[in-house]
Specification:
This protein is an alpha+beta fold. The chain has two domains: about 55 residues, 2-Layer Sandwich (Beta-Lactamase), CATH 3.30.450; about 230 residues, Phosphatase 2c, domain 1, CATH 3.60.40. The chain is built from eight helices and 14 strands. Helix 2 runs parallel beside helix 3 and helix 4 crosses helix 5. The longest helix has about 50 residues.
Length: about 400
């Protein structure tokens, strides 16, 4: 046996037996020359697995144990240092994540409150940084969309404002002559509305007074109303009479707006100034009021359903009513928005209380709707949920030719 020791050594026979039988490394504690050693013996095998010999490594046990202890201490020191570094990195990284999440959360709250002019400032280039970049890009696109929407809204508002201005030009002009006095008040809930009124004289001695309300609100109702107004004024020039006007309007709406489910209420009165006779037809319109010389209010109830809902056969001459007028007769016309609104006491005004306002104004000899409008001003027109159109026809010159009314 070859040995690097300065003295001869002899391995125990049991070690050789273990090497031969195990054919793998064997570890032992041995004593040589009065000193204990840690021994690692490795068998040498040929290619057929036959045992040829062994290589043994000896290390003084005390020195080996010291080395193990030293290695163990360094392992503990290295592990503690690695743990400390990991804790520091975790704290730094955790703090970075916490600040990034807080920044994103804060900016999201501002966006939820409607402020889109914010930007998330996250310095990291990790997934949170990418999330912040995506968040900022999303806000930039939202701001751009808002800008475009604001421009489009401004254009639409200007168009609606112009449409409202044009529609106000279609509201009947007030008149104050010896033969006819007309007072008008128009209060749309939006810029434009579906309320309509007209008065005119197709020939001497005849005066038409008309008010109507197209279903719906806003631009759609206003567009239909513009078509209806032209159609109605053509029928006035033809002097078709109240029942004929209602019937033809029904056909007009069913032919042109049947798919839109549009209908209209219409009150049409034809006044013969020579005879003092009033003939009217009301297609589903609220009861209007005829005022006699002693300020007595007579309701003029609807005579047929609204136009645009039923076949033309429903609308006949039987839908007309005829009344005699005195020399101081007044005709009060209005749409349902005048009384179907929440009033100062929180309750709906209703037709009966609206009538009381009319009686109060008439007793004072004022514009028939003045008392109502004074209290409406306290409520504020911004609270209107429906359009309001009020027309007061006053002091018809019965028995005259009606030339002044026509002029």
């Amino acid at each position: 046996m070859y040995s690097t020791f300065a003295f001869p050594i002899r391995l125990p026979p049991a070690l050789y037996r273990d090497l031969r039988s195990a054919k793998q490394q064997v570890y032992r504690h041995l004593s040589f020359n009065g000193q204990r050693y840690m021994t690692a013996a490795f068998p040498l095998l040929d290619r057929h697995g036959r045992y040829l010999g062994a290589v043994a490594i000896f290390a003084p046990e005390e020195r080996a144990l010291r080395a193990v202890a030293t290695t163990e201490r360094w392992m503990w020191i290295t592990g503690a240092a690695a743990l400390l570094v990991a804790l520091v990195l975790a704290f730094v990284l955790g703090d970075s994540i916490r600040r990034a999440v807080q920044e994103l959360t804060s900016k999201m709250r501002e966006v939820m409150d409607g402020n889109y002019n914010v930007r998330a400032e996250v310095a990291t280039r990790d997934e949170l940084g990418q999330l912040a970049d995506g968040f900022n890009e999303m806000l930039a696109r939202i701001r751009e969309h808002q800008r475009l929407l604001a421009e489009q809204k401004a254009v639409l508002e200007e168009q609606l404002r112009m449409a409202g201005h044009v529609q106000r030009l279609l509201v009947p002009k007030e008149t104050d002559t010896d033969c006819l006095k007309v007072r008008v008040k128009y209060l749309p809930a939006l810029e434009v509305s579906g309320d309509y009124a007209y008065y005119g004289s197709p020939r001497e001695g005849v005066l038409y007074a008309i008010i109507g309300d197209v279903s719906g609100h806003g631009a759609a109702a206003a567009l239909v109303m513009s078509r209806v107004s032209t159609f109605v004024e053509e029928m006035v020039e033809e002097d078709v009479g109240p029942a004929g006007m209602v019937k033809r309007l029904n056909g007009f709406l069913r032919q042109n707006f049947s798919t839109a489910n549009v209908f209209a209420t219409l009150f049409c009165a034809r006044i013969d100034l020579r005879s003092g006779q009033l003939v009217y037809s009301s297609a589903g319109h609220p009861a209007q009021f005829l005022v006699s010389g002693d300020n007595e209010l007579q309701p003029l109830e609807a005579t047929c359903p609204p136009a645009g809902l039923l076949p033309d056969g429903v609308f006949t001459g039987a839908n007309e009513r005829e009344l005699a007028l005195d020399s101081q007769a007044r005709l009060l016309l209005f749409t349902d928005g005048a009384y179907e609104l929440d009033w100062l006491d929180g309750e709906m005004l209703g037709l009966e209380r609206f009538r009381e306002y009319l009686e109060m104004s008439l007793s004072e000899g004022a514009f028939a709707f003045s008392a109502f409008l004074q209290d409406l001003e306290k409520l504020g027109t911004s609270q209107l949920s429906d359009d309001i159109l009020l027309v007061d026809f006053w002091a018809l010159c019965l028995g005259e030719t009606g030339k002044e009314a026509r002029d």
